[in-house]
């Protein structure tokens, strides 16, 4: 205790005495009708308090009391004039109240704040009106307790020091509400740090109440042991006070008398108390933890605006409920025999419901985060301390998580896994996988499983290995294999394998080659992808065989593939068809891979969707479907995301069965985006792919890692169903645009060497190339098609912005190149002008190599240009312009120019171009072409079909209020013998 100055007593004694009443008024201590101190007594008591002020805190118990007896201290603190004394006198005077005085007694928690407020009214009022409210020992410092005190004063001081200070500051309100003026509002007056532990009442009573410093470590430890002795004496008093108060008052109080707050204090102090368990069960109906939380009173407002939603009834009630569930969980776990057997499961479910109620609005109101900002009431933090020692708790949590449906947000699971330890999320995820489901919201902690040597980790590791061996889901097994082996990399890391015998066994069983493999010979198994084992791609087909592709045509075509199969296969296909219909999907391309000595074929279907809406639980999560089919059955193949490159799907380049085990391997081209624009590109293919591929083997309905297994009996007389044979034999027209964005500019530039002054470096590297695409020639694999936009140059090689007529323009070139000799075989050159509706930039071009068989022996090559631009507030436009070229000697001749394959128009109303929102209807049209059997002037007509997505937008809503899809034919585009007209379509749409 530091010496503090006190005013000269004689100078104020007379003035104080004049004001004394003959009888002191009653106070909250129950002390009534005490006579005031006489002037002599008053002076003597205050002088002794002054001596206490100057006494070191460690010597308080040695202080000999002569004048400040408990009886006189009671009389002094009952006098109205008490508050005129210096604060230090009032604080130190209470040190004398610890033995025999009635001042430091109480029946309920609010008695304490009432007494302190009567002794320090100015200080309490100042705190309550301050801009930032915080009680701390510099504001009001109640010294003690001390070893010579009685037990109840010890309990009084423990409660004052360790009660959440918000209850003292706002005694008439919910003590768990969010008050921005009270930082760390649930921390007590005696806190030393802003941590969750400091807000724990039991910790504070045992470690902070009565704590003193020490000049040496020996003194510090001795003082801490003294504090624990104080706690041991105060705890039974607090228990009895809490029990008696709640029994009589139940849940009628606020602030420090709030029943949830008192239960929280009690559970923190004595979680194993059976009397606490009984009281919680008596009061639960009044607390009503299963009742719906209050509705939101305010919509979401950005977190950075001034209104922060503090005081929102829903969340304040939610935090109070969280505090109750924390106390209940502590009691259930520490006094299980005092609760019904179902209490643990009920409590966990109540926690889940609370978290679920908070998830959507909670995520937008960061002040109410359960973690960090509200750790003192977070029931999930109990798990961190209890889960490792309670196997029944983990079992109960896993059972609770099993009850959660597919529609429950992952944020609900997150609290359990964040605080349940690595073993909990691992156990739950393995249980999901064992049920044949891909794990949702949790993954096994494979790093922990691989490295941890504990018995728990070993048990779960063994469970995981058994699960991989027994799993009937190839997708689930692949997920586990990928996670546990770092996408197969650990299987080819000698050091990693040497450290883990279980990993060696796993890799030997399931992974014989890494995901990326070299061509044509595999590095580890030495199997080689020779021509004789390659499956041949059958003809790519447009569904409808020349007619417009529709969802109904897709359904009929798919059901036809299984027409000769059994009822089980037909029912499975019907489910797939139904899912395609629900998602408004249809097939635009189908490719079949087959081998004469193999009874199975691989069917690859490319989908389109004018309404890009996907159900996360759908089997169809990509725009590609793989089917493995044979005479009497088929499988829908799951394609793990690891087979996607740069968030895009890679095309199939080969199919095989190298080890002849009946399981097909699928070879996917590596990323096409690896060209660097330097001489290293000469070592890459025209499409920029490196000289290796990504390969996986189909196993149990999923594309997974290649594993070399014993060969099956050689298949002889391999048969395929009649429907598949008909598909192989067909010669339909393909309408797909399976183009690639990447192209090897170095090799294209080499082919044009001496023919042009174009610098084939991109513009960002001071070159002239704006956009470049390449694709193999559909009729000759030794030829490559290239198309590009470039800057124009004058005779001196300087870039010019305009063509010869002064109009902004860019160069346009299409060429056929011999990919073996890197020579241009034939080409077309032109300029494309820019105006208000045209913009030429990167990623404008695509190559379309569909079967545009326009005449006998004439197959056109297609180029698409996405160069349209809609001015502000335009009412319509077109885009995706199609050019068709035919090869004639050394040149490419365009037979169709700038044919728009998409249109849009505002057909009713107008968009919100001004300050006021206006409703409108927009018609988005995508066209498809098919080569008709009819001819005009010796050339096949082109059948045009329009696919409409008509959306109605009203006011300032963020999505269309109505959406309609329809398809109808627009007739045929006919050739004049040389070219096809480009202005045919718009007049057929009926907008003019």
How would you portray this structure in words?
The protein is an alpha+beta fold and 992 residues long. Helices cover 32% and strands 19% of the residues. It is built from 26 helices and 25 strands. Strands 19-20-21-22-23-24-25 form a seven-stranded antiparallel beta sheet, with no helix packed on it. Strands 1, 9, 10, 11 and 12 form a five-stranded antiparallel beta sheet that branches. α1 packs across α2 (39-53), α14 (343-362) packs across α17 and α17 crosses α19. It is elongated and about 130 Å long. Residues 2-30, 542-548, 610-617 and 731-740 have low confidence and may be disordered.
Topology diagram in text:
Elements (H helix, E strand, L loop, with lengths): L8 H10 L20 H15 L16 H8 L9 H7 L15 H11 L1 H9 L21 H12 L2 H5 L31 H7 L9 H33 L9 H11 L4 H14 L25 H22 L8 H20 L18 H6 L4 H12 L7 H25 L11 H6 L3 H16 L3 H11 L9 H6 L1 H10 L5 E3 L17 E2 L13 H11 L5 H16 L3 E9 L6 E8 L15 E6 L4 E4 L6 E2 L2 E2 L2 E5 L8 E5 L22 E8 L2 E3 L17 H8 L15 H7 L17 E8 L6 E8 L1 E2 L5 E2 L8 E10 L4 E11 L11 E11 L2 E8 L10 E13 L2 E19 L10 E17 L2 E15 L8 E12 L19
Antiparallel strand pairs: 1-11, 2-3, 3-4, 4-5, 5-6, 7-8, 9-10, 10-11, 11-12, 13-14, 14-17, 15-16, 17-18, 19-20, 20-21, 21-22, 22-23, 23-24, 24-25
Helix pairs in contact: 1-2, 2-4, 5-6, 7-9, 7-10, 9-11, 10-11, 11-12, 11-13, 12-13, 13-14, 14-16, 14-17, 16-17, 17-19, 19-20, 23-24
């Amino acid at each position: 205790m530091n010496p503090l100055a006190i005013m000269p007593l004689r100078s104020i004694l007379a003035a104080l005495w004049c004001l004394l009443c003959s009888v002191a008024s009653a106070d909250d201590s129950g002390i009534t009708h005490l006579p005031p101190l006489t002037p002599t007594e008053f002076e003597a008591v205050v002088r002794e308090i002054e001596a206490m002020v100057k006494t070191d805190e460690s010597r308080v118990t040695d202080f000999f009391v002569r004048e400040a007896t408990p009886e006189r201290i009671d009389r002094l603190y009952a006098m109205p004039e008490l508050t005129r004394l210096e604060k230090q006198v009032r604080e130190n005077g209470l040190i004398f109240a610890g033995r025999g005085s009635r001042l430091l007694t109480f029946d309920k928690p609010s008695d304490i704040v009432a007494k302190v407020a009567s002794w320090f009214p100015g200080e309490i009022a100042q705190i309550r009106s301050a801009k930032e409210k915080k009680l701390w020992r510099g504001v009001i410092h109640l010294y003690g307790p001390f070893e010579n005190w009685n037990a109840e004063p010890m309990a009084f001081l423990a409660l004052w020091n360790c009660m959440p200070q918000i209850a003292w500051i706002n005694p008439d309100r919910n003590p768990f509400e969010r008050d921005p003026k009270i930082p760390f509002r649930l921390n007590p007056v005696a806190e030393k740090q802003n941590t969750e532990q400091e807000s724990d009442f039991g910790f504070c009573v045992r470690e902070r109440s009565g704590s003193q410093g020490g000049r040496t470590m020996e003194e510090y430890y001795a003082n801490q042991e003294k504090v624990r002795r104080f706690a041991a004496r105060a705890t039974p008093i607090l228990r009895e006070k809490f029990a008696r108060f709640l029994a009589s008052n139940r849940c009628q109080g606020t602030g420090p008398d709030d029943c949830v707050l008192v239960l929280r204090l009690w559970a923190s102090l004595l979680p194993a108390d059976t009397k606490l368990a009984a009281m919680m069960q008596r009061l639960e109906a009044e607390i009503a933890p299963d009742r719906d939380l209050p509705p939101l009173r305010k919509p979401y407002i950005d977190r950075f605006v001034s209104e922060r939603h503090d005081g929102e009834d829903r969340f304040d009630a939610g935090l109070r409920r969280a505090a109750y569930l924390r106390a209940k969980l502590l009691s259930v776990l520490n006094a299980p025999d005092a609760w019904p057997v179902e209490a643990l499961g009920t409590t966990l479910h109540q926690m889940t419901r609370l978290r679920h109620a908070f998830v959507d609005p909670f995520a937008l109101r960061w002040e109410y985060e359960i973690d960090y900002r509200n750790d003192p009431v977070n029931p999930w933090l109990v798990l961190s301390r209890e889960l490792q020692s309670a196997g029944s708790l983990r079992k109960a949590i896993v059972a609770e998580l099993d009850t959660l449906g597919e529609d429950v947000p992952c944020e609900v699971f997150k609290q359990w896994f964040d605080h349940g330890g690595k073993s909990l999320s691992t156990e739950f995820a393995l249980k999901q996988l064992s049920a044949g489901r891909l794990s949702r919201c949790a993954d096994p902690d494979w790093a922990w499983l691989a490295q941890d040597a504990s018995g728990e980790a070993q048990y779960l590791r063994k469970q995981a290995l058994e699960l991989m061996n027994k799993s009937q889901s190839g997708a689930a097994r692949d997920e586990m294999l990928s996670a546990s082996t770092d996408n197969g990399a650990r299987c080819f890391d000698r050091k990693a394998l040497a450290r883990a015998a279980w990993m060696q066994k796993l890799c030997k069983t399931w992974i014989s080659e890494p995901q990326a493999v070299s061509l044509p010979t595999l590095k580890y198994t030495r199997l080689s992808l020779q021509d004789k084992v390659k499956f041949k791609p059958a003809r790519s087909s447009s569904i409808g065989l020349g007619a417009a592709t529709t969802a109904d045509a897709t359904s009929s075509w798919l059901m036809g593939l299984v027409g000769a199969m059994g009822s089980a296969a037909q029912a499975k296909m019907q489910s797939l068809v139904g899912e395609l219909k629900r998602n408004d999907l249809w097939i635009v391309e189908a490719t079949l891979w087959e081998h004469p000595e193999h009874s199975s074929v691989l069917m690859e279907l490319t989908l389109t969707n004018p309404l890009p809406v996907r159900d996360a639980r759908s089997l169809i999560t990509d725009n590609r479907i793989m089917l493995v089919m044979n005479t009497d059955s088929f499988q829908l193949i799951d394609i793990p995301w690891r087979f996607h490159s740069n968030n895009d799907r890679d095309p199939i380049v080969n199919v095989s069965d190298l080890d002849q085990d009946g399981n097909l391997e699928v070879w996917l081209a590596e990323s096409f985006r690896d060209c660097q624009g330097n001489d290293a590109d000469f070592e890459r293919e025209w499409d920029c792919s490196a000289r290796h591929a990504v390969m996986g083997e189909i196993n149990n309905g999923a594309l997974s890692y290649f594993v070399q297994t014993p060969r099956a009996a050689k298949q002889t007389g391999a048969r395929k169903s009649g429907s598949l044979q008909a598909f192989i034999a067909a010669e339909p027209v393909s309408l797909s645009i399976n183009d690639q964005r990447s192209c090897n500019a170095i090799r294209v530039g080499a082919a044009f060497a001496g023919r042009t002054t174009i610098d084939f470096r991109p513009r960002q590297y001071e070159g002239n190339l704006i956009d470049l695409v390449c694709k193999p020639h559909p009729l000759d694999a030794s030829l490559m098609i290239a198309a590009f936009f470039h800057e124009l140059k004058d005779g001196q090689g300087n870039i010019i912005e305009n063509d010869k007529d002064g109009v902004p323009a860019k160069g346009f070139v299409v060429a056929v190149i011999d990919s073996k000799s890197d020579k241009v075989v034939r080409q077309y050159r032109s300029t494309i002008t820019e105006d208000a509706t045209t913009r030429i930039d990167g990623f404008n071009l695509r190559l379309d190599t569909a079967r545009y068989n326009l005449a006998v022996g004439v197959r056109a090559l297609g180029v698409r240009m996405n160069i349209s631009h809609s001015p502000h507030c335009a009412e319509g436009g077109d885009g995706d312009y199609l050019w068709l070229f035919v090869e004639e000697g050394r040149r490419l001749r365009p037979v169709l120019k700038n044919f728009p394959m998409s249109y849009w128009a505002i057909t009713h109303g107008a968009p919100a171009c001004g300050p006021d929102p206006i409703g409108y209807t927009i018609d988005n049209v995508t066209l498809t072409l098919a080569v008709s059997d009819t001819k005009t002037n010796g050339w096949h007509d082109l059948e045009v079909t329009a696919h409409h997505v008509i959306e109605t937008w009203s006011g300032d809503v963020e999505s269309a209020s109505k959406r309609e899809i329809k398809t109808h034919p627009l007739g045929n585009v006919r050739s004049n013998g040389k070219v096809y007209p480009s202005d045919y379509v718009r007049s057929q749409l009926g907008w003019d």
